[in-house]
Design goal:
Layout lengths: L3 H9 L13 H12 L4 H5 L5 E4 L16 E14 L4 E2 L9 E9 L4 E6 L3 H7 L5 E6 L1 E4 L2 E5 L2 E3 L9 E4 L4 H5 L4 H15 L9 H7 L4 H9 L4 H33 L10 H8 L7 H15 L5 E6 L5 H14 L3 E5 L3 H15 L6 E4 L5 H13 L4 E4 L13 E7 L6 H8 L9 E6 L5 H7 L4 E5 L9 E6 L4 H13 L3 E5 L7 H18 L7 E4 L5 H12 L5 E4 L12 E6 L7 H8 L9 E6 L6 H12 L3 H12 L7 H4 L14 H17 L9 H7 L14
Parallel strand pairs: 5-8, 11-16, 11-17, 12-14, 12-15, 13-14, 15-16, 18-23, 19-21, 19-22, 20-21, 22-23
Antiparallel strand pairs: 1-10, 2-3, 2-4, 2-6, 4-5, 6-9, 7-8
Helix pairs in contact: 1-6, 8-9, 9-24, 10-12, 11-12
Bound molecules: adenosine-5'-diphosphate and magnesium ion (MG).
Adenosine-5'-diphosphate binds next to helix 12.
C-alpha cells in the first residue's frame, strides 16, 4: 500500500478499474475472483456485500460459555502449551522437530475459568506466539471434548490489534479461493484497499432530493459501513440505502424499457366496443365480478390506445379468466380484426372451444378449433376462412403457430397458461399481425406470482390481476392425513363416486427420482385398481411415459365421465375443467411446492358440489414441509400462498420464475422481504420517468449512465409473449 507505484494506482482508481490492478490482487488472483465470484472490477468487489456479520463487540467469560453457542470470543491468558505426536504421545518442547508434531494444545484462562485451544496446522508459528503469561483474544466455535471446553483453530488476536470490538463481515467464498489464500481476512484487506482508492472520487448514484426526502445515507458512507460497520445502527442505515438503490435502479431500468416500448411499438387501434361485445355481454348468465370488469377496462384502454398491448393477466384458478379472454376477443372482432386463443394441450383447447362457442352463440361470430388432430379437409377449410376473414375467433394448440396458418387481420392473440410456452413459440404468434403491425397480446396465467416478483419479472409488462372469485364458488375443504387414514380415504372416495362424483389421485414426479416415482405411481395405480375393481369402477391413468394418444385417450375418458378415478402424475396441473370431480388426493404431498399444491387443488371445486382436497403425507415430513401443508389447509387464497412460498423458498425457486429466471440478480435486496422498499423505489422511478422518459435531462445524466452498466442491459423481456 505504501509503495509509490501503489499510491499511483490508488489515485487513479475508480469503481471501473479492473480488479487485477487493485494492490494485493494481480493477474492470478484476478482470474480466480472472476471465475469464483464474478468480480471483474473494483466496483464489483465493493458491491459484494457480506452475507452476515460476526459480532465481535462482546467478550464472553469462559465460565459462561456453552458449547451450543455459535462463535464467541474470550480474553484469556496462556497458561500452558503442550505438543503431541500423531500417536498421542506428548513431545518435549526441547530439541523439537516440528514435523513430528501433529497437535498443539494450550490451556488458556480468564478470571472465571479455563479452556483448551487446539491447533493442527501452523503449529510452529502458533507455538512461538502463545507464550505462557501473554494475553490474547481467542475467537472461535466452542465445543466440549473429553469433558473439557475447547476451541479448535480459533482466531488469535493480540488485545491491542483493533481486530475485534466491531462487526466483522463474512463474505461468500469457495474452496478454491481459500486454497489460494483469499481468506475472509484477505478479502477484508482487499476491500479496505479498494475503499481507500475509490471513496475520494466516488460518484453518488441517487439524486440528491431522493436522499433528502428518504433520509438515505450517501453512497460513500453506505459502502464503508456495509463492509466495516462501526455499530448496528450504521449498518442498518447502510443496508437500507443499498437496498433502496438496488431496487430503485432496477425498477428505473425496467420501467424505462416499458416506456420505450410503448412509445415505439405501434399497435392496432381499436376504438369501438362493437356489436358482438354488446350482444355477448347482454346474454351473460351472470354478472361480471368487479375484478373482471376492471381488467376488461384495462384491456380495452390498451386496445384503443394505438400502442401494442402486452399484458399479463394473473388470476387464480376459477377466477374467470376465460370470460375476460372472450370479451377481449370480441373487441378485436368488433373493430374488424380476428382473435386467436392458444392453449397448451388438446384437452384444454377443446374445453376452451366448448366454452367460448357457448358465449359466442348470441353474437353470430364464427369460432373454430384447430389442433394437431384436425383433419386435412377441415384444416383446409379453416385456413381459407382465416384468410378471407369469415372466421372471427380461432381456438387451438401449437397448431396455430404453424406457418401455413395465415390471418386476414389478426388483432389479438390470447395465450393461456403462459409458462407452458417457450418465448420463441410466442414470438411466432407475434409475427402473424396485420400489415406488419403485431397483434395485441394477452397472456393468461393461473400461477399467482407475488406482486414484488411480478413487478420485477414482468416489470416492463403491464400486469392485470383478477383478485376476486366469482360468487357462489364452494370452498374446497383441505385436510392433511397420514398413512393410517388410507383406508378411510378409499371409503370416502367410494362414497363420493356413489353420489356420482369423480376423483383425482396425483403422484409426484420429480426429475431426480423419476425412476422411483414411476414405480410408486405404478404401485399406487395397482392398489387403486384393486380397491376399485371393474366392472363397478373404472380407473384411468395418465403419465409422461405414455404416447400423446394414450394420454389423450385416458384424459378424455375422465373428462367425459367414463372413468371414476384419474390416477396421474402432475400432468393434469394445467387448467382442465372437470366440474364433476369433487375429490383431489395428492400423494406424498410434502414433496410438492406450495403453489403446485394450490394449482392441483384448483382442479376441484369447479362444480356445484362441495369438494375436498386430501393431502396424503409420508412418514418423514420436515418441519418446513409440514408448515407448507398447514398453510394450504388454512387458506385458499393463491396470492397469500405465493407470498408465503416466496418467503420460505426465496424467489428463485418459485414456479413461473424458474422458466424465465430473474432478469437480474439482486445483491442485497430481497423480493420476499423488501416489498415495501420496492414499492417506494418504484414510485420514485415512475415519477422521474414521467418527467423525463428517456433520461435525457442533465439532472438525470448520472442515472442514465448507471443504467448503461451491464447489470441493467437485460434481455428484452418486453417481448415475453
Ligand atoms: P379460470 O380463471 O380458471 O380460467 P374460468 O374462466 O374457467 O376460470 O371460470 C371458472 C368458472 O367460473 C366457469 O365455470 C365460469 O363459467 C364461472 N364464472 C366466470 N365468471 C363468473 C362470474 N362473474 N360469476 C359467476 N360465475 C363465473
Ligand atoms: Mg382457464
Amino acid at each position: 500500500m505504501k509503495s509509490p507505484a501503489n499510491c499511483l494506482y490508488l489515485q487513479r482508481m475508480n469503481m471501473d478499474t479492473a480488479i487485477q490492478y487493485l494492490p494485493g490482487v494481480g493477474p492470478k488472483r484476478a482470474e480466480l475472483l472472476g471465475t469464483e465470484l464474478g468480480i471483474a472490477t473494483v466496483g464489483d468487489l465493493l458491491r459484494l456485500y457480506p452475507f452476515r456479520y460476526i459480532d465481535r463487540s462482546r467478550i464472553v467469560r469462559i465460565a459462561d460459555i456453552h458449547p451450543d453457542l455459535a462463535l464467541v470470543q474470550v480474553r484469556a491468558a496462556v497458561m500452558k502449551v503442550r505438543l503431541f505426536a500423531k500417536n498421542g504421545a506428548e513431545l518435549p518442547a526441547e530439541k523439537l522437530k516440528y514435523n513430528a508434531v501433529s497437535r498443539l494444545s494450550a490451556i488458556v484462562a480468564d478470571e472465571s475459568g479455563e479452556m483448551e485451544v487446539v491447533f493442527f496446522k501452523g503449529i510452529k508459528w502458533m507455538h512461538a506466539r502463545l507464550q505462557p503469561g501473554s494475553v490474547f483474544i481467542f475467537f472461535g466455535k466452542p465445543a466440549v471434548f473429553g469433558n473439557r471446553l475447547n476451541m479448535v483453530h480459533p482466531e488469535v488476536d493480540s488485545p491491542d490489534s483493533g481486530n475485534f470490538g466491531v462487526l466483522t463481515g463474512v463474505y461468500p467464498s469457495t474452496e478454491k479461493l481459500k486454497n489460494s489464500g483469499i481468506t475472509g481476512k484477505v478479502m477484508l484487506k482487499l476491500i479496505g484497499t479498494a475503499l481507500e482508492g475509490v471513496l475520494p472520487t466516488l460518484q453518488e448514484t441517487l439524486p440528491d432530493y431522493i436522499l433528502k426526502e428518504k433520509g438515505l445515507v450517501p453512497l460513500s458512507f453506505a459502502l464503508r459501513q456495509i463492509h466495516f460497520p462501526v455499530d448496528q445502527d450504521a449498518l442498518a442505515k447502510a443496508t437500507y440505502r443499498l437496498k433502496f438503490e438496488e431496487l430503485f435502479l432496477l425498477q428505473l431500468s425496467l420501467l424505462k424499457q416499458k416506456y420505450i416500448r410503448s412509445r415505439s411499438e405501434v399497435g392496432l387501434r381499436m376504438p369501438a366496443v362493437g356489436d358482438a361485445f354488446n350482444a355477448c355481454f347482454k346474454a351473460l348468465p351472470y354478472e361480471l365480478t368487479g375484478a373482471q370488469k376492471r381488467v376488461i377496462r384495462e384491456i380495452r384502454d390498451d386496445m384503443k390506445s394505438g400502442h401494442q398491448m402486452n399484458r399479463l393477466l394473473q388470476g387464480d384458478v376459477g377466477s374467470g379468466k376465460t370470460m375476460v379472454a372472450v370479451l377481449s376477443a370480441l373487441i378485436a372482432v368488433g373493430n374488424g380484426y380476428q382473435a386467436c386463443v392458444m392453449a397448451p394441450t388438446e384437452v384444454l383447447a377443446q374445453q376452451h372451444f366448448a366454452n367460448v362457442s357457448k358465449y359466442l352463440a348470441p353474437t353470430g361470430v364464427k369460432v373454430v378449433l384447430l389442433t394437431g388432430n384436425t383433419g386435412v379437409a377441415a384444416r383446409r377449410e379453416i385456413h381459407a376462412g382465416l384468410e378471407d376473414g369469415s372466421i372471427g375467433v380461432i381456438i387451438g394448440t401449437h397448431a396455430l403457430i404453424e406457418d401455413t396458418v395465415q390471418f386476414k387481420a389478426l388483432g389479438l392473440a390470447v395465450v393461456d397458461e403462459q409458462h407452458r410456452f417457450g418465448v420463441e413459440q410466442r414470438s411466432r404468434l407475434w409475427n402473424k399481425g396485420s400489415g406488419g403491425i403485431p397483434p395485441h397480446v394477452l397472456v393468461m396465467t393461473a400461477t399467482p406470482i407475488p406482486r414484488t416478483l411480478a413487478m420485477t419479472l414482468y416489470g416492463d409488462l403491464d400486469v392485470s390481476v383478477i383478485d376476486e372469485m366469482p360468487p357462489g364458488r364452494k370452498p374446497v375443504q383441505t385436510l392433511c392425513v397420514g398413512e393410517n387414514k388410507r383406508h378411510a380415504m378409499h371409503n370416502f372416495i367410494r362414497d363420493e363416486i356413489a353420489k356420482g362424483r369423480q376423483a383425482f389421485i396425483v403422484y409426484p414426479l420429480i426429475f431426480e427420482s423419476e425412476k422411483l416415482d414411476y414405480k410408486n405411481l405404478q404401485l399406487g395405480y395397482e392398489e387403486i385398481v384393486k380397491a376399485f375393481p371393474l366392472p363397478q369402477y373404472k380407473v384411468a391413468i395418465v403419465h409422461g411415459q405414455q404416447t400423446p394418444q394414450e394420454k389423450e385417450f385416458n384424459m378424455s375418458a375422465f373428462v367425459a365421465g367414463r372413468a371414476n378415478i384419474l390416477v396421474s402424475t402432475t400432468v393434469i396441473e394445467v387448467g382442465v375443467d372437470v366440474p364433476n370431480a369433487s375429490v383431489m388426493v395428492i400423494e406424498s404431498a410434502e414433496r410438492f411446492g406450495l403453489s403446485q399444491l394450490h394449482q392441483l387443488r384448483g382442479r376441484v371445486g369447479r362444480g356445484a358440489e362441495k369438494s375436498f382436497c386430501i393431502l396424503m403425507k409420508g412418514t418423514k415430513v420436515s418441519k418446513e414441509s409440514q408448515k407448507r401443508l398447514d398453510l394450504l389447509c388454512a387458506t385458499e387464497n393463491g396470492f397469500e400462498l405465493a407470498e408465503e412460498d416466496m418467503k420460505m423458498r426465496g424467489p428463485g425457486d418459485l414456479e413461473g420464475t424458474m422458466q424465465s429466471g430473474l432478469p437480474v440478480s439482486l445483491n442485497i435486496a430481497s423480493l420476499a422481504k423488501d416489498g415495501l422498499i420496492l414499492n417506494d423505489a418504484r414510485g420514485y422511478a415512475q415519477h422521474i420517468l414521467d418527467q423525463d422518459p428517456s433520461l435525457e435531462k442533465p439532472c438525470n445524466a448520472l442515472l442514465a449512465a448507471e443504467l448503461k452498466k451491464d447489470k441493467y442491459v437485460t434481455k428484452d423481456y418486453s417481448k415475453i409473449s
